[in-house]
Amino acid sequence: MEGLTATSTLAEIVRTAPGSERALEAHALDYCCGGRRRLVDACAETGVDPDAVLAEIDALGPAAPVAWATMRPGELVDHLESTHHAYLHAELPRLSALTAKVVGAHGERHPELAEVQRVFEAVRLDLEPHLAKEEQVLFPMIRELDRASAPPVFHCGSLRNPISVMLREHDAAGELLRRLRDVTGAFSTPGDGCASYRALYDGYARLEADTHLHIHKENDVLFPAVVALEAAVATAGA
Q1: How far is it, in rounded angstroms, from Cα 173 to Cα 236?
Q2: Which residues does residue 9 pair with via DSSP β-bridges, in sequence order?
Q3: Is the CB of residue 210 less than 8 Å from the CB of residue 83?
Q4: How far, in whole angstroms, is CA 85 from its chain's centroid?
Q5: Which member of 77, 146, 189, 224 has the lowest number of beta carbons within 10 Å of its beta carbon?
Q6: Is it the case that residue 110 has pLDDT exceeding 90?
Q7: What pTM does this model have?
Q8: Distance CA 31, CA 18 (A)
Q9: Is 184 exposed, middle or buried (0-12, 13-18, 19+ CB in 10 A)?
Q10: Distance of alpha carbon 224 from alpha carbon 213, whole angstroms
């Protein structure tokens, strides 16, 4: 992909090359919480050849730019709620029920499933309150800021304050997802696993991929845009 090199950050790669997140996921390169790292540095940590990763991304061919990369903050929070938040609200309960089913059917032969269930439920307990805080507190303030011609007065002061909380919570979610990947053997279904077992691990893999992209959009696109907009509105109103 033209313009991308081993010194490009993982966030730049995902913004510039739609679909590249799949190549990064395949090599366990964390572009969400670790999006500001250069490709060469991230590859050094995981023992991957950065040139091979770039070749895989280049093989994807040209793709249309993603609309969310250029949305205003108010539009982007609408997009996040209608896509990633809606997905999590539906998928987390479904995966909880499927996890319980698989543990009930296979837990005796696979005692490691008890830890899988514990870690997944920790992921759910982490994400659901986080979604609520964004939907009920941060996102409404971002929409207000995006419509403002004069600096709004928020109970939290600058939006940098709740954003810093969200960033810490994103790091915690990323760590829990890494733990889920570890305890499932990178979502590898055992040989005696049934269709439900495979569906569960496929669901975990999709959850990880969707949440990584979700966090990337917030950490590397939305939050910097909000900080810049807040400064611009403050300057205009001075």
Answers
A1: 37
A2: 38
A3: no
A4: 11
A5: 224
A6: yes
A7: 0.85
A8: 13
A9: buried
A10: 16
Amino acid symbol at 92: L
Give the pair of three-digit tokens for residue 10.
Answer: 């993982």
Report the C-alpha gap between 147 and 73 in whole angstroms.
Answer: 10
Token couple for 93? 């309960």
* Backbone Cα Rg of the chain: 20
Longest dimension (CA), the chain: 67
* Residue whose structure tokens are 């991957």: 48
Task: Report yes or no: 167 and 223 within 8 Å, Cβ to Cβ.
Answer: yes
48-105 confidence digits (pLDDT tens): 898 898 888 888 766 666 789 889 999 999 999 999 999 999 999 999 999 999 999 9
Q: List, as one string, the DSSP characters of the chain.
A: -TT--TTSBHHHHHHHSTTHHHHHHHTT---STTTTSBHHHHHHHHT--HHHHHHHHHHT---PPPGGGG--HHHHHHHHIIIIIHHHHHHHHHHHHHHHHHHHHHTTT-TTHHHHHHHHHHHHHHHHHHHHHIIIIIHHHHHHHHH-SS----TTSSTHHHHHHHHHHHHHHHHHHHHHHHHTTTT---TT--HHHHHHHHHHHHHHHHHHHHHHIIIIIIHHHHHHHHHHHHHHH-
Calpha distance 230→157 (Å, rounded): 11
